[in-house]
Specification:
152 residues; 8 helices; 82% helix; 0% strand; globular
Length: 152
């Protein structure tokens, strides 16, 4: 589990001495991240598919809606990275579209001035640039430039 996500998870599980719903997602998150790491080490496409499936399970879980918003945004950001990675490997535009949607949701929910906002805007901008390169829609590159300008 990434240090940032683990830190957030630890914070939300220590309220009133009992775990919150984010704990219910811990195993699923760890499986998704382990599959992604396996892919990065080996290039095994089945592992990348397993990572994408794992993140989909986390995002579809009703437990996610009950978790702290900061945790939800971190999940959206990390899931977006896996779907963009799979797009870059397999070329399925649906994966890139999902990544962009996740990053848009994370950006919209991230308060101005948050230390996490520049990275999320950068991810969104990179995804939009990829989609522009694939589909040639000028609106994507314009939105990418706006995202990147906000990030600095």
């Amino acid at each position: 589990m990434s240090n940032r996500l683990l830190s957030i998870l630890n914070k939300v599980t220590n309220v009133m001495g009992r775990p919150l719903t984010a704990v219910e997602l811990k195993d699923s998150i760890q499986r998704a991240q382990a599959a992604e790491q396996h892919y990065l080490r080996t290039g095994d496409l089945a592992a990348l598919d397993a990572a994408a499936e794992g993140w989909s399970d986390v995002l579809d879980s009703p437990d996610l809606n009950a978790a702290e918003q900061q945790f939800q945004m971190a999940i959206l950001n990390d899931a977006g990275g896996v779907f963009r990675r799979r797009y870059r490997v397999c070329g399925q535009i649906e994966d890139l579209t999902r990544a962009i949607e996740y990053w848009q949701q994370a950006v919209e929910a991230t308060p101005e001035g948050s230390l996490d906002l520049p990275a999320r805007l950068n991810n969104l901008g990179n995804g939009l640039r990829d989609r522009y390169a694939q589909l040639g829609q000028v609106a994507d590159v314009e939105e990418a430039l706006r995202s990147e300008a906000r990030a600095v």
